[in-house]
Write a structure and sequence with these properties.
Layout lengths: L1 H5 L31 E4 L5 E3 L3 H8 L3 E9 L29 E9 L4 E5 L6 H12 L3 H10 L8 H4 L26 E4 L5 E3 L12 H9 L3 E4 L12 E3 L4 E3 L4 H6 L15 H11 L30 H10 L3 H9 L3 H7 L8 H13 L6 E3 L8 E5 L5 H7 L14 H15 L14 E8 L5 E8 L2 E3 L9 H16 L13 E3 H9 L2 E8 L4 E11 L5 E6 L2 E4 L3 E4 L3 E3 L3 E3 L22 H5 L6 H9 L4 H10 L5 H10 L10 H5 L6 H9 L4 H10 L4 H9 L31 E11 L7 E8 L2 E6 L2 E4 L8 E8 L3
Length: 801
């Protein structure tokens, strides 16, 4: 006890604003359930596993720790299942995932001798007792983030409810026996609160649901609010009210009055339908994971180093699938596992290692690759349960928190695009290695692209940029099963005419070779509105593209969104015939040839003419006809060189959240004055003066943004000042980029199930030790039939010769 009194100055009583970690070690995936329990530093409130608490003592000198150990209880067989009422976990009304209950014991441990004192104990100093009570009562930082992310947004009061004008049609709504006024649907019915029409809800993507009559009625009348019949009870807060103009479920504070207008006595009604939120809950609760396994077959489970599953934190499968493939590459495996151990990362981390990306990547790498946590899960019915085919896995909570800190979408529990996450991860990894690029594992994905533009004068210009993914269009005209597709279209037309549905076995999808997708990247394209400095006018140029370097790992992204009838973007239902080994040597850019003449540099006034923006009005009008902002449509056309509607649509969908998307075009390109002092600053960094000028113009005079622009120039070759100038000569490969031969072997897939990238589920397949392995969150096993023709992202590794 005297030893403890000596260190009272190193003990802090937690305040409400302190982040307290008591559920997981900050440098490993040890928890209070682990064999050695968890040690909470009573000064910093960081937690450490048994093997790592000594490191913290060496680094900080903090000697006093609260030791937490959890031991599993036996669970009663008649423990009732609780049905969730909130899209939340860990709070009243949220999901009960039937985890086992634990007995929790505590003690005070003093390092370096690991002197142990019992808790609770009246003999402990009051400061220590208060500090421990504060730690135990406080919500853990890990759980706080989890609950905040999971809890569904509270419904807002609709502005339309307060001013709703109801039409007296002498309509009286009976207490039951409802039917859609325009079809025979008797379920999923909505009462329009303006005119009393009862109509069916929306048709779902799988053909279920209603016939869209309620939404069609709104489009015709603009009557804003509807309530779902069957959700109205004496507790009006549970009624499902939907606002069509706000496009979300809302609260109607005057609902009782609005219902009484149609003779509805809500106090006597019984609930017979799920609300929209409950349907979402039901889908989360009852999602059948077996449906996304390969043909529903049993998968042989795998355990050990490199076969650790990642527990789904709630729509985190995009992260899990991406990271499983990333840590199967030599570059990331070497950087964060083989060449840097946990001790090195912890010693180099700041005071709070939970916010250090390098530390959390190293922690995740060790969790995935060491095999320490790749063990069979134990069934939760009693203490002596036998193992299951499912893994315990690891929960990447701290990694997700730190990688999402600079991205508001990834910090939520909503589903995200795996491609966007991959690019965000690479960007963050590159950022933390800016001072030591030789250690940067993201370089293994980086490559150069060169675009060649030839105007009718015969003269050429070259533009260069770097990228991490090769995004490929899918040329449906290259489908190899055209005859089968023609027969399918005839069958589909016949079934549609007869009012019958096609079975899944009857559906025929186009099959397009990957080689044709790769060829489409390099094939010539017309670029309209190109300003030629040779002809001193705008004209149509021919653009081709090639790679100036071949990365160690080539990531192919399949563009599966196309324009269909009515100019509506749809997910392309297509198979890609993929070879395990590809050769892209033919895609290497040749650079300026001896027989080619570069477009001349701009003369006086030429630069000003070149930067005048001119969007193709046909493209703009078609995009605007889909409901997009006219200015945004102009920018989309400009930034895709007026190539076509589909390219402009792809650009528009991926740049809707750009901070300058609403900036006037003339403001972007009209002012060519550049502060000479800023040019001098960039020149002092080692950049050429002309490059510095262009970068400052493109970034509005912001030096930091200009620096980013130089290293990562815009992907587009639209009619900007870059188009009007020639390159400095023959292709020069950036010496910092990896390069080698063009032969690659397929090593990983990220596949997506769902109608778009923001919903559904992601699964990874990785080629390891001579076999394909499926990573489906915390399920890891031998893959019998990897979906090579259905992947969203393909990861290829260059074959070393």
């Amino acid at each position: 006890m005297e030893v403890l009194r000596m260190y009272l100055s190193r003990v802090r009583i937690p305040e409400p604003t302190n982040r307290i970690y008591k559920q997981e070690c900050c440098i490993s995936f040890d928890t209070p359930k682990s064999e050695g329990g968890l040690f909470v530093d009573m000064n910093t409130f960081l937690a450490f596993g048994k093997d790592y608490v000594g490191w913290n003592f060496e680094k900080t000198g903090n000697p006093v720790y609260l030791h937490i150990k959890q031991t599993k209880k036996a669970i009663s067989e008649d423990r009732p299942l609780k049905k969730p009422t909130l899209l939340a976990i860990g709070i009243d009304g949220g999901f009960d995932n039937q985890e086992p209950e634990y007995d929790e014991t505590y003690s005070i441990v003093i390092l370096p001798d690991y002197t142990t004192l019992p808790f609770p104990s009246v003999s402990l100093p009051e400061k220590v007792r208060l500090a421990v009570d504060g730690i135990l009562i406080a919500e853990g930082a890990e759980r706080k983030e989890q609950i905040a992310s999971w809890t569904a947004d509270k419904k807002q009061i609709s502005e339309y409810a307060l001013t709703l004008k109801q039409i007296d049609n002498a309509v009286i709504i009976p207490p039951s026996g409802w039917k859609c006024a325009k079809c025979d649907k008797t379920e999923n019915l909505w009462l329009n609160l303006t005119d009393g029409m009862i109509l069916c809800g929306r048709k779902l993507w799988d053909g279920s649901g209603g016939n869209n009559h309620a939404i069609d009625h709104y489009n015709e009348t603009h009557y804003p609010l509807a309530v779902k019949l069957g959700t109205i009870t004496s507790d009006l807060e549970g009624a499902d009210v939907f606002s069509y103009p706000e496009d979300e479920s809302v609260t109607d504070p005057l609902l009782a009055e609005h219902l009484a207008f149609f003779g509805i006595d809500f106090s006597s009604l019984q609930k017979t339908e799920m609300t929209t939120a409950e349907k979402e809950l039901d889908q989360n609760t009852n999602f059948d994971w077996n449906r996304i396994q390969e043909s529903g077959q049993e998968v042989e489970p795998l355990y050990g180093p490199g076969y650790t599953g990642l527990v789904n934190l709630g729509n985190s499968c995009y992260l899990a699938a991406t990271m499983q493939v990333i840590f199967s590459t030599h570059s990331f495996c070497s950087r964060y596992y083989k060449n840097q151990n946990l001790k090195m990362a912890f010693d180099n981390a700041p005071a709070d290692p939970t916010v250090d990306l390098n530390m959390q990547l190293t922690k995740l790498a060790n969790g995935l690759l060491s095999g320490k946590y790749s063990v069979p899960a134990v069934q939760n019915d009693n203490v002596d349960s036998s193992p299951t085919d499912k893994q315990e896995g690891i929960r990447p909570r701290m990694f997700k928190a730190v990688i999402a800190a600079s991205h508001p979408e990834f910090s939520t529990m909503r589903q995200q695009d795996a491609l966007e996450f991959f690019l965000h991860l690479i960007e963050q990894v590159e950022r933390i290695h800016s001072g030591n690029p030789n250690l940067d594992p993201s370089r293994s994905f980086k490559f150069g692209i060169e675009e060649r533009l030839q105007c009718p004068s015969g003269k050429v210009a070259y533009n260069k940029r770097n990228d991490y993914i090769l995004s490929l269009n899918i040329p449906l005209d290259k489908a190899t099963n055209k005859k089968e597709l023609e027969e399918f279209q005839k069958l589909k037309a016949k079934k549609d005419a007869e009012g019958e549905k096609l079975s899944s076995e009857e559906i025929v999808r186009p099959r397009v070779p990957l080689s044709d997708c790769l060829n489409s990247f390099s094939s010539p394209e017309d670029v309209q509105g190109f300003y030629s400095t040779a002809l001193k006018t705008r004209t149509t140029a021919i653009k081709t593209a090639g790679l100036t370097s071949f990365p160690d790992y080539l990531v192919l992204h399949m563009r599966k969104f196309v324009m269909e009838a009515g100019w509506v973007p749809k997910k392309l239902d297509v198979y890609i015939d993929v070879d395990d080994i590809i050769d892209i040597s033919h895609m290497r850019s040749k650079g300026l040839q001896p027989s080619e003449e570069l477009l001349p540099e701009d003369g006086p006034g030429g630069q000003e003419e070149a930067v005048k923006v001119l969007a193709n009005e046909d493209i703009v009008s078609q995009l605007a006809g889909m409901g997009f902002n006219h200015l945004h449509c102009q920018k989309a056309a400009i930034n895709t060189s007026n190539v076509g509607v589909e390219e402009a649509m792809n650009w528009l969908l991926s740049h809707m959240d750009d901070p300058d998307i609403d900036a006037p075009i003339n403001k972007e390109s009209g002012n060519n004055d550049v502060d000479p002092s800023k040019i001098a600053t960039l020149v002092s960094f080692g950049f050429e003066e002309e490059i510095a000028k262009k970068a400052l113009k493109a970034s509005g005079g912001d030096i930091e943004k200009a620096t980013d622009w130089i290293f990562n120039p815009p992907a587009s070759s639209g009619p900007t000042d870059m188009d009007a100038t020639s390159s400095s000569g023959p292709t020069t490969v950036d010496p910092t980029l990896p390069d080698g031969n063009g032969k690659y072997r397929l090593i990983g897939l990220v596949s997506h199930i769902g109608t778009n990238t923001q919903c559904g589920h992601y699964v990874a397949h990785v080629y390891k030790e001579g076999r394909w392995v499926i990573f489906n969150d915390d399920k890891v096993g031998v893959s019998k039939d990897p979906p090579k023709d259905m992947a969203y992202l393909y990861f290829y590794e260059r074959i070393q010769t």
